[in-house]
Amino acid sequence: MLHELTNTPVLGVSLGHVSLLRLDQTGGPAPGNKSFKLRHYFSEAKRLGITRLISFGGAWSNHLHALAATGYQLGVETVGIIRGELSEEKSAMLADVRRWGMRIVYVSRQEYRQRHDVAYQQQLKKRFAPCLLIPEGGASLAGAQGCMAVADIIRQRAPLAHHIVVPVGTGTTMAGLVAGLDERFEIDGISALKGAHDLAQRVQDLLSQLPCDNHAHWRILHDYHCGGFARADLSLRQFMLAFEAIHGIELDPVYTGKMLLAIHQLRVCGHWDEDAPVLAIHTGGLQGRRGYSWLS
Ligand SMILES: *Cc1c(COP(=O)(O)O)cnc(C)c1O
User: Fold this and answer.
1) Is residue 81 located within the same domain as residue 185?
2) Which domain holds residue 267?
3) Closest atom of ligand 1 to CA, residue 166
4) Atom number of ligand 1 nearest to Cα 170
5) Contact 68, 80 (CB under 8 A)
6) 239 Cβ below 6 A of ligand 1
7) pTM
8) CA distance 247 to 8
9) What digits encode the pLDDT tens for the residues 85-115?
10) Residue nearest atom 14 of ligand 1, based on CA coordinates
């Protein structure tokens, strides 16, 4: 599960002393961080005798992909509220979730914007009752709590890697990691979004509700979005293709590619001591590669 990169340079810079925690190789039918964020909802549904889970996402959502795969495996019905866009309807992701029996409900962009509204959520819960509703991306306290298990893995498998880097979308995974590790650890979160400056507050809010006495040092870096969410500029494309050719490990352009590009650039500017071990969390997302023709 832990993979240490060789020091063969990528675009002139060695990533020696960088290890990857391959969450993309864990989680069975739902590899990556999403299965950690979802585990609470499946156990809660089981506890309550509820057999239907409902959530939100776009046509390439890793979250809905993981939800549908896990639901199929465990015999739980799933419903995906999809931000409809005709041109994307045929995404390979949607074909997968359909195969796994997820009921897909397309809604307009306007309706989709209401996904965080309590009244709208109540309406959906009623329509699909009895069901549990999971916030978009699994972004919730329960999701963060599930991700504290990733911290357990780090303490067991890589106790000496005090510099940790993780990709950030909603900040839920990062919050779980920060809460699950102590002040000897320093965590850099690489935002996949452009200018999402409320992320630190979101992580802080989750942290204040998570069970922890002390936690890791943390910060979110905003300079590695490569054009914005799900965008991939030339520098990211060049880096990912070079990285994959040399290290033989697949990345996704939305999250893990940007994280490794950030590590590459931080190495160049001496962010860490030359020989300090750095642990990068490979959070998965590889199903989404199919949406990028330059990767195939
Ligand atoms: C969803 C996702 C993330 C972001 O996780 P958050 O908890 O939303 O910050 C990172 N990497 C991958 C591959 C993901 O699918």
Assistant:
1) no
2) 2-29+140-295
3) 10
4) 8
5) yes
6) no
7) 0.97
8) 8
9) 665 567 999 999 999 999 999 999 999 999 9
10) 285
